[in-house]
Amino acid sequence: MAGCQTAVSNIVISVVVLLTVKFLTPLFEYTPNANLSSIIISTVIGLIDYDVAILIWKIDKLDSWRVWERFLVNIRQYPEAAKIPDVLIVRVDSAIYSSNSNYKKERILRWLTEEEDNLKAKYEPRIEFLIVEMSPVTDTDTSGIHAFEEIHRSLQKRDVQ
Greatest CA separation found in the chain? Predict the structure, then answer.
């Protein structure tokens, strides 16, 4: 029923599941537990996404961003702070989840584009470094990590570190 877009599809799925449980479950009553468990195990093993598991394990590496924390300043908070030529520093203030990861990715790239346009209009050197300051970020999920991987690929195309 993938691709269904109405509430009626939920009703149809519910009825099909109910009928399956009601009439097909008794057929498994005399199946040995070892056979049932092997079916369940072989099904569950196929559900594990090893690449995502490795990605989650690597989340701890995001703490390396905190090294930059002492070099960063918030221009709004400290108006007397000086801008560093060739460097754009972007601060992410909240957790990064599947619901906002795409927005944050697009916003960071938009800031970069706007800053590059401003520099080009003033005939100043282009941005060579983007620092994403994430010390307030307490949590992220795999979609957030994928968003930052996409940002990294985009930066490589622009020759920005």
Answer: 80
pLDDT digit string, tens, across residues 16-34: 989 988 888 888 788 888 8
Indicate the pTM of the whole model. 0.52
pLDDT score, position 21: 85
Helices 142-158 and 50-57: crossing angle, nearest 10°? Answer: 80
The token pair at 106 is: 């697009």
Looking at residue 65, the DSSP 8-state letter turns out to be G
Q: Does domain 53-158 have CATH number 3.30.310?
A: no
Domain boundaries, the chain: 7-48, 53-158
Helix (H, G, I), strand (E, B) or coil at 114: helix
Indicate if the pLDDT at residue 91 is higher than 70: yes
CA geometry: angle 74, 105, 161, nearest 5 deg = 70
Among 32, 55, 70, 68, which residue's Cα sits nearest to residue 147?
Answer: 55
Amino acid at 107: R
